[in-house]
Write a structure and sequence with these properties.
The chain is mainly α and about 140 residues long. It contains three helices and two strands.
């Protein structure tokens, strides 16, 4: 079984493993960028009561994006090592990165649904526990 990714004439016949790592890293960078409210504006919700669930969901989504970034970085380090991996291993890394990013978007979508439900209860300045919390939803690519 051939493990190199070039044809005998030297032409590239398939995507090189480095390309898959670059795609994974780019997806992670874009996922971080989409979660910066100054760059991409999502729907915003004013919440009258504190929600520890939304705080936890935000941290879980951030952790999943961070894990995807670490996986992409590990794939890049693996590509730079002396041993060349098999042809399937970079694809597995890319699938892992995409799965983590999809999970982060799903968690964000669940958080947005909770925020929408909390904001739909009505807003009254006298009924609020504190200054209203502004929850900005992440649009996400994988949750429409």
């Amino acid at each position: 079984m051939r493990t190199d990714l070039t044809e005998p004439e030297g032409r590239a016949s398939r995507i090189r493993p480095e390309h898959l790592v670059a795609v994974g890293g780019s997806l992670c960078a874009l996922a971080v960028l989409e979660r910066v409210p100054a760059v991409v504006s999502g729907r915003r919700y004013l919440l009258c009561h504190a929600s520890s669930t939304l705080d936890r969901l935000t941290l879980v989504a951030f952790g999943l994006v961070l894990a995807a970034g670490i996986a992409a970085l590990a794939g890049a380090v693996m590509m730079q090592s002396g041993r060349r991996p098999g042809a399937a291993l970079p694809v597995v890394w890319l699938v892992a990165v995409v799965a983590l990013l999809v999970a982060a978007d799903r968690v964000d979508a669940h958080g947005e649904a909770l925020a929408a439900r909390g904001a739909a209860t009505g807003f009254s300045a006298t009924a609020c526990d504190y200054l209203p919390q502004d929850y900005s939803a992440t649009p996400g690519w994988f949750s429409w």
